[in-house]
């Protein structure tokens, strides 16, 4: 009888990479990956725990999988499985729960090749991981975090900071490029913290060595802390294979709130670092995260965040309402803001983000950018603009994962993607 497995992945790019790695692990053991709709023998749910809403979504998806697929084994892994294993185990129908620290051993456990995963694994056990169901490859180079941000539960879920071996990273880059992968996205919990074997911060040095290898593939980094945005990074980003995109979490534009959050920077230092980056890379697409409704945030503090976003011309904002996370320092703070007010502020931030994305993209109308054709038939430019072809017949000669030059020709307000383009054959 054919053994089949399906995956449901929530949360960050790190989880996407690890699901790709699990897929490879199951396939090596004779399993076939299938969609959930095909009632697989095994369902793996890779969870997130970044917010209370994420925890609730995890539980809903687990219960739904059990109800809709009564004959399937349902295994739960990921961050929520690491922090709240007992809660998940109480859900009737869950076959097993395996946290992040033991995640890569899950295929062997499910296949019955091991009876338990009792010792902490190498968090970089996934090797030669190709993208599954998407065209761009994620490459995990770092895991865990030593920061103590007062709102954040992720150190509980991912542990202390660890780095993948320097040469191992380069070998994986070579492997992905040799396999024809067009875009490699470096991912981790705190990328800029990356250390070499001697314990020295080496993120920029690693980037420089990766860029020396790239002839076909292009490089993107998933997210980086403000303290790691520096002149060296700004210089490296001028390399033609380095995507003009950077995601730098802000969380708040008010220095007092940042102090309460136990962030490592203040409004003024954040501003200076982004200004330095933009001076050398004026066309860079800037994304960020903002938490609104943190204890102590009044209207003026909220406006401080908005004004900083506008002044630095961020092109995209991921907005989150503050939610108290168990075991964090913020748990002891008074959360006096109503849910309705948090939702109002998130809406304002989302409206800013939509407008800023449109304004940024419109600067490139009439220009051509290198873009990769993704699995859903949309294109992603090097500077993170999502584009659909105005003439879909042009897709007929293209292959998913292929690079093409796309000329942006229009912005359609009513479309989900917004930007339209055409293949530039010139």
Secondary-structure blueprint:
Blueprint: E1 4-9, H1 13-28, E2 32-33, E3 42-47, H2 52-68, E4 73-78, H3 79-83, H4 85-89, E5 96-99, H5 106-110, E6 137-140, E7 142-143, H6 154-158, E8 162-163, H7 166-178, E9 183-187, H8 203-213, E10 218-221, H9 231-236, E11 245-247, H10 255-260, H11 267-280, E12 285-292, H12 299-312, E13 316-321, H13 339-362, E14 368-373, E15 379-381, E16 386-389, E17 403-411, E18 419-423
Parallel strand pairs: 1-2, 1-3, 3-4, 4-5, 6-9, 9-10, 11-12, 12-13, 16-18
Antiparallel strand pairs: 7-8, 14-15, 14-17, 15-16, 17-18
Helix pairs in contact: 7-8
Summarize the structure.
With 426 residues, the protein is α/β, with parallel strands linked by helices.
Q: What is the CA-CA span between the terminal residues?
A: 53 Å
Major beta sheet, strand line-up: 2-1-3-4-5
- Strand fraction equals 15-25%
Largest sheet: 5 strands, parallel
Helix content: 25-40%
Derived from helix and strand composition plus strand pairing, the structural class reads alpha/beta
Helical segment count: 13
The best one-word shape is: globular
Number of DSSP strands?
A: 18
The Cα radius of gyration reads 22 Å
Overall mean pLDDT: 93
Q: Which spans of ≥5 residues are poorly predicted at pLDDT below 50?
A: none
């Amino acid at each position: 009888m054919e053994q089949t497995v399906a995956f449901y992945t929530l949360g960050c790019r790190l989880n996407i990479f690890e699901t790709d790695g699990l897929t490879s692990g199951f396939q090596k053991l004779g399993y076939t990956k299938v969609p959930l709709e095909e009632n697989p023998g095994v369902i793996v749910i890779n969870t997130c725990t970044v917010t209370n809403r994420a925890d609730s979504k995890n539980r809903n998806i687990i219960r739904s999988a059990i109800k809709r697929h009564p004959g399937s084994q349902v295994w739960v892994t990921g961050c929520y499985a690491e922090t709240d294993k007992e809660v998940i185990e109480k859900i009737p129908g869950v076959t097993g729960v395996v946290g992040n620290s033991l995640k890569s051993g899950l295929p062997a456990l499910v296949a019955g090749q091991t009876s338990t995963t009792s010792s902490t694994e190498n968090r970089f056990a996934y090797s030669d991981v190709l993208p599954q169901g998407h065209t761009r490859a994620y490459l995990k180079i770092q895991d865990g975090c030593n920061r103590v941000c007062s709102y954040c539960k992720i150190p509980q879920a991912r542990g202390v900071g660890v780095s993948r071996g320097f040469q191992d990273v380069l070998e994986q880059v070579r492997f992905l490029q040799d396999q024809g992968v067009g875009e490699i996205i470096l991912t981790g919990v705190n990328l800029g913290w990356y250390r070499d074997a001697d314990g020295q911060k080496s993120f920029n040095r690693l980037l420089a060595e990766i860029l020396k290898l790239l002839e076909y593939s292009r490089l993107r980094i998933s997210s980086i802390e403000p303290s790691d945005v520096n002149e060296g990074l700004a210089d490296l980003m001028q390399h033609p294979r380095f995507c003009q995109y950077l995601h730098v979490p802000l969380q708040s534009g008010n220095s007092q709130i940042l102090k309460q959050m136990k962030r490592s920077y203040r409004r003024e230092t954040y501003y200076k670092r982004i200004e330095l980056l933009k001076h050398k890379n004026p066309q860079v697409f800037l994304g960020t995260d903002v938490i609104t409704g943190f204890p102590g945030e009044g209207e003026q503090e909220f406006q401080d965040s908005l004004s900083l976003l506008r002044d630095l011309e961020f092109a995209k904002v991921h907005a989150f309402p503050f939610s108290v996370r168990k075991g964090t320092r913020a748990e002891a703070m008074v959360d006096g803001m109503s849910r309705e007010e948090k939702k109002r502020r998130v809406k304002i931030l989302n409206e800013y983000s939509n407008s800023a994305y449109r304004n940024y993209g419109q600067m490139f109308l009439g220009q051509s950018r290198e873009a990769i054709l993704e699995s859903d038939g949309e294109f992603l430019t090097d500077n993170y603009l999502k584009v659909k072809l105005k003439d879909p017949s042009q897709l007929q000669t293209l292959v998913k994962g292929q690079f093409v030059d796309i000329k942006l020709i229009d912005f359609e307000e009513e479309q989900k993607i917004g930007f339209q383009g055409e293949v530039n054959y010139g």
